[in-house]
Amino acid sequence: MASNPDGKPSYIDLLLAFLWLGLTAFGGVAMFAHVRKYIVDKKGWLDSNTFDSGLALCQVIPGAIIMQLSAYIGLKLKGIKGAVVCFIGFGLPAFLIMFILSILYKHSKNISGLN
User: Taking a C-beta distance cutoff of 8 angstroms, is the pair 77, 9 a contact?
Assistant: First the structure.
């Protein structure tokens, strides 16, 4: 996807990027490096100092650091709407996976022969 003339990604770019990151980034602290490599090194959407400042800020706020970092990145790139897009994009894959697994679990407990 093409970026806007100002070099910032579009909302669709952000959504797709964070859907991908949400699907592939898991494993505790390793997520930060994965997101950093993609956002700073590959896409060049943020510089290292801005990313590091956001990570430091997110570490002092209670809650899921990676979700907050996703919103911070969106906020820096596209404002409040960007923060919402990135937050939803990053969290949606995990939500959908857990939702589907929950449905499968509910249906599997009715299969005869399983305890």
Answer: yes
Q: Where are the domains of the chain?
A: 11-108
Cα 103 to Cα 83: distance, rounded to the nearest angstrom: 30
Place of tokens 């990053």: 90
The model's pLDDT over 79-96, given as tens digits with 9 standing for 90+, comes to 999 999 999 999 999 999
Cβ density class 13-29: b for 16+ within 10 Å, e for less: bbbebbbebbeebeeee
The span from the CA of 17 to the CA of 11, in Å, is 10
Is 43:79 a contact under the CB 8 Å cutoff? no
- Indicate the pTM of the whole model: 0.85
Q: What is the pLDDT of residues 43-66, one digit of tens each?
A: 999 999 999 999 999 999 998 999
